Structure formats: C-alpha cells, structure tokens
Amino acid sequence: xxxxxxxxxxxxNLLVFFSIYSLIxxxxxxxxxxxxxxxxFVISIVxxxxxxxxxxxxxxxNKDVEVLSAFLLTxxxxxxxxxxxxxxxxxxxxxxxxxxxxxxSMSGLTTTGATVIKDLDNTSKSILLWRAMLQWLGGIGIIVxxxxxxxxxxxxxxxxxxxxxSSKEEKVLPRxxxxxxxxxxxYFSLTIMCSFFLYSSGLDIxxxxxxxxxxxxxxxxxxxxxxxxxFDSIYTEIVTIVFMLISALPxxxxxxxxxxxxxxxxxxxxxxxxxxxxxLITLIVMFWLTKFYEVDYLQALRIxxxxxxxxxxxxxxxxxxxxxxxxxxxxxxxxxMLIGGCSGSSxxxxxxxxxxxxxxxxxxxxxxxxQPRGVFIPTYNxxxxxxxxxxxxxxxxxxxxxxxxxxxxxxxxxxxxxxTALSGAAAALANVGxxxxxxxxxxxxxxxxxxxxxxxxxxxxxxxxxxxxxILILLSPQLWKR
Length: 482
Fold this sequence. Notes:
A hairpin with a 2-residue loop joins β1 and β2. The chain has helices spanning 2-21, 23-31, 37-57, 67-91, 98-109, 125-148, 150-153, 173-200, 205-216, 234-247, 251-259, 269-292, 297-312, 327-339, 352-370, 387-413, 418-429, 451-465, 469-474, 477-480; strands at 379-380, 383-384. The protein contains 20 helices and 2 strands. Helices cover 65% and strands 1% of the residues. The longest helix has 28 residues, at 173-200. The protein has a domain at 381-480. By secondary structure, it is mainly α. A two-stranded antiparallel ribbon has the order 1-2.
C-alpha cells in the first residue's frame, strides 16, 4: 500500500510537470494566431488540477519506491503520458482518429519516429513542436531509467552497468534524482549545441530547435515531409550525423569523460565496437552504391553514412529513399535496426553490449572446443562474464527474436506483405521509425496501415523502448517476491 501511495505522489508531480510542458506549444500557437492553443491550455489546466490534487493528497507519505514498483510506475506513467500526448493530435488541427493520434503520441514518447501525419510541411508549428517535445522527453526519460532502474532488476545482462548511484536498499528515487540532474544537464547542453550548429547551417530557429530535440533523442520526427533531405545541405547532414552518433553513446560515460578525460570515452569496449560497426557497414554500403547504382564515391559516402548512422542509432532521419537500394542493403539495414546503439543512450534495439557478450562467449566456446584443456574466461571491459550474466543475455536475445517474430507474424496475419511486416516489426521494436519498403519507408508513412496493425505496433514500440522489461517481469515471478 505504501508503494501505491508513493507511486501516486510521483504520478501527481508528473502531471503537474506535464501541465507546464504543454503550455509551451500552446503559447506558441496562441502567438501565431492558431486554433490549437485551446486544446493545449485545456490539457494544461486539467493536468495541473489533477496533479496537484493527487500530489497534495499523498505529499506526506513515504517517498521511497522499491525497484519493481518504480518500473511499474514507469510503465503506467508512459501509458498515461501517451494518452495525454495524443489529445492535440486527436482534437487539434491534425484531426486524427484516436488510434492514429495514440500511435503518433506513442511513437513520439518512445522516440520511434514513425508518423501517420501525411503533410508535415503544412502542419501547424505548435503540433510539430509538440511532436519534438514528446520525443525529447521520452529520450531523457529512458536514459535515466536505463541507468537507474534497469541494472538493479538484473535481467537482460543490465547488472553489468551498476553505477555509483546504486544502493543496497533498492530505493531508487533519491538516486534517480541525482542521475537525472547530471544526465539532464548533458542532455540539455547537447540539445542547445545541436540546435546552434543546425541554425548555423542555414535552418531557421524553429526547425533548428525542433530537429535539435529529436536528434538528441534519436527520435526521427522532422518538421518536413522529406526529413533532413529537405534542406539539401552537407553541413546540416554532418551536424546531424555527429549528434546522432553522440546520442547513441552511453550518457553516463559521456558525463564521466567530461569530468575526467574525454578520451576515456573512446576506450570503452562498447563505444569502440559501435563506431567500428557503423564505419564498416558505411563502407560496405558505399561500395555497393558505387558498383551497382553508379553513384560517385563522394556522393555514395555522403548518403550511405547518413543512412547507416540514422538506422544504427535508431534515429530514422533520411536524406534519401534507401528502400530503393536493393535487397542487400535492406537485409543489412534490418540487421542494423535490431542491433541498435549503446546501453545507457537514447537509442534502442538489442544494444551493442549484448551482441559483444554473445560474440565473446561464442569465441570462448570455440576455443574450448579446439583446446579442451585450456582455461578461457570471457570478459567485458575487464569484467568477467559469469554464467548468470551470460544466461541473462542469452535469454534476452532469444526473447527479443521471439517477440520480433511474433510481431512480424501478427502484421502478416493482418495482410501486410513480407517486407512491410518484417521491417515494420523491426522498426517498432527497435524504435527506428521508417520501414524498409515503399509502403512505410522513408518516403512514406504509416497512415495506410490498418488499425489492427497499428495497435500491435504501439505495443511493440513500448515493449522495445522499455527493453522488453514488461514481458520479462511477467515471466520473472521471483522479482515479485522481493
């Protein structure tokens, strides 16, 4: 009961915050003479009074929340904010159906970037800003959760990332506050820096800020139908590439590196592997384009590097319709989607460290087969990969593939073609956004997808964003006994 009361106190505070948050696009719309400001102001008033009522009712209660309760609180809060976030799309100028509005909001808060809005070029700025703000909020939220809560749950191999913020009492709110302050400062600073460089590349203030927020969140929502390709600027693309890469790196490592030695960031095994993987696949795609599509080397490097990094980081921005590059790149990008970025970043997917652990353990097993009497111990960043971690990662890996396969089958059952089902499932579960064909690819959107498929894609987005933990907790009764 105490956990429930403490959780309600947190939800109340969250609603108060969201009431202030929604005033920003509302004020912009009022200033520009739009009609959507009424919706935003009503949301703000309702959230404010509801949140204050809940907060004051439970303000004197114990504010400590146990780990499992904190995660369930995260799940419930995500659903509540998704519902509230969908209201401007439903009642505002986009005039979307409820499922489309919910899909757009879920895509925003999970930093997926899949959209159902057909004409972004003529969408009101307040709605475009709201989309960017949802992604920005979802991005920082998942970073804090990944650092503060996931490691303590000790499933999926996340126990490797216990930090100095961890405590033996399994109380998370004080620690989360410390983490949020440190990570929030870096997150906000990177957003300002990214927006500044985008502005210096020729974008106006609004586009710079909106894209700055969604780039740092590795979200992919753009203010233009053609995404970053609309601006046709090498400088803009370079800025986007650099900050997409930064945002896919562990934020806690960025924090420590800035405090000590920034070079230490690149000594991390996960960071090295990620940058090497991205570089290698960029070169492969570049040579593919020059050989089979007669693209000159510089142009091939330009479009391949942007596409590969956008997919690998889970951002989903585009400068070119990569669904036209053939089966080889389609399979390569599907592979990249599922892998994702580094743990502790705003990107999603299986995460690099899990792939490393599986590879290292496989190589160790091969060595033992070749040299039965040899003693080989796999390590990750100088830490031994024990049986508990290996079993945890292996179980997570196969569950991820099982959910991916199940979501693909559900989409196929609904009448989607094979590539739409495969890439749609991967794009939702890995929070990438655009699929890999002409129907849901970078040159199109998800508007024509059926309500049935959108419902399950929303589930896929949420489960993928929370790193399968809703499923893992249901399958881990020992966590409920804590």
